[in-house]
Amino acid sequence: MYHELRKRGASALRYGNGARKSLYQMPASRQSVGLGAIIAIVLFGFGGAWAANENVGPQSGLPLPRFVSLKADKVNVRAGPTREHQVTWVYTHAGLPVEITAEYGNWRRIRDWEGSEGWVYHSLLSGRRTALVVPKDKEELVPLHAGPGQQSAVTARLESGVQASLRRCNGSWCYLAGSKFDGWVEQHRIWGAYPNEKVD
């Protein structure tokens, strides 16, 4: 009923209902070019407008970092904040939660649940909050409760990798709504909300 994150070799990660993050392998020469471009950005000030360590994004005026979600079914992730930069992988599942860690013009640097980072165009992101179920043990089933507390009835158990809309959090528990389920999950068992964060 619910879907689990599974590794498929070194080149792809499947999640949810069969969507995939594809990792494109580059020849050594392309890797060198990509690295050179990144170094050039730092040396010549292109990266000076990034706001990786600031509290507010210089372009959006919104907090950094912050969680958002993918708006499109296909999102190219690039090595840097221009269309000339190498596409390093592609997300193929709308709604996946990601974290914005920096801004440059119309580009946003994002981080996913695995810690992978890259740049995407801002229009491919949505402010709608979503979350992934991420227990420490991937074989563990995470209980979904009727209310925000351990004493509340368990209405379902969710597998690792289940994606859902994040409706609200009280700092300890989050209310999730997905395909054919809704209820409360302990906040530390999901990726898509910060520890102690309150979401209305």
Outline the fold blueprint.
Elements: E1 6-8, E2 12-15, E3 19-23, H1 28-43, E4 66-70, E5 75-78, E6 87-91, E7 97-104, E8 107-111, E9 117-121, E10 125-126, E11 130-133, E12 142-145, E13 154-158, E14 163-170, E15 173-178, E16 181-186, E17 190-191, E18 198-199
Antiparallel strand pairs: 1-2, 2-3, 3-6, 4-7, 4-10, 5-6, 7-8, 8-9, 11-14, 11-17, 12-13, 14-15, 14-18, 15-16
How would you describe this structure in keywords?
200 residues, mainly beta, SH3 type barrels, 2 domains, 18 strands
3D structure, described in words:
- The protein has 200 residues and is mostly beta strands.
- The chain has 2 domains: 6-128, Roll (SH3 type barrels); 131-199, SH3 type barrels (Roll).
- It is 8% helix and 42% strand.
- The chain has 1 helix and 18 strands.
- The protein has one helix at residues 28-43, and strands spanning 6-8, 12-15, 19-23, 66-70, 75-78, 87-91, 97-104, 107-111, 117-121, 125-126, 130-133, 142-145, 154-158, 163-170, 173-178, 181-186, 190-191, 198-199.
- The strands form 4 sheets. Strands 11, 14, 15, 16, 17 and 18 form a 6-stranded antiparallel sheet that branches. The protein has a 5-stranded antiparallel sheet with strand order 1-2-3-6-5, with no helix packed on it. A 5-stranded antiparallel sheet has the order 9-8-7-4-10, with no helix packed on it.
- β2 (12-15) and β3 form a beta hairpin.
- The protein is elongated and about 55 Å long.
- The relative contact order is 0.16.
